[in-house]
Amino acid sequence: QVQLVESGGGLVQAGNSLRLSCVLSGRTFSSYVMGWFRQAPGEEREFVASINWSGGRTNYAGSVKGRFTISRDNAKNTVYLQMNSLKPEDTAVYYCAADSIRIGLSPSNIDYWGQGTQVTVSS
Fold first, then answer.
1. With contact defined as beta carbons under 8 Å apart, do 109 and 98 qualify?
2. Were 32 and a residue from 9, 75, 98, 116 both cysteine, which residue would form a disulfide, CB within 3.0 to 4.6 Å?
3. Cα–Cα dist 104/119, whole Å
């Protein structure tokens, strides 16, 4: 009965910014580690960022560290991904993820997934 709904994707020129949002419903939001993965055409789904229950611990893929920021607002049941200095190689479908234990580099065994939101960065 958990549902994740992403929003905020779109088409943007390289160097610009987007902010993705993901709203969780059906369970207590603060009970979950939240994260973002992305998948480009013909590629495997890859880890982007994660954030723990309190928001005090975050992890990032090396390719986005310093450019992307993950945050959460437990009162709004929402996790965000602020994406700055976007590059064409950031083009992918971005998926919100929730897990009751942890989120690591592998997309395997994630408890819940959103449907994805397309991010396209033009050169």
1. no
2. 98
3. 22
**CB–CB of 4/110 below 8 Å?**
no
Do 103 and 110 meet the contact criterion of CB atoms below 8 Å apart? Answer: yes
User: For the segment 62-81, what is each residue's pLDDT rounded down to a tens digit?
Assistant: 999 999 999 999 999 999 99
- How far from the centroid of its chain's Cα atoms is residue 95's Cα? 6
Residue among 82, 79, 83, 118 nearest 97 (CA)? 79
Task: Report the alpha-carbon distance of residue 51 to residue 30 in Å, rounded.
Answer: 11
Residue 75 φ then ψ, to 5°: -65, -25
pLDDT digits (tens, 9 = 90+) for 65-122: 999 999 999 999 999 999 999 999 999 999 999 999 999 999 999 999 999 999 999 9
User: Is the CB of residue 82 less than 8 Å from the CB of residue 68?
Assistant: yes
The closest of 85, 87, 83, 89 to 20, measured between CA atoms, is: 83
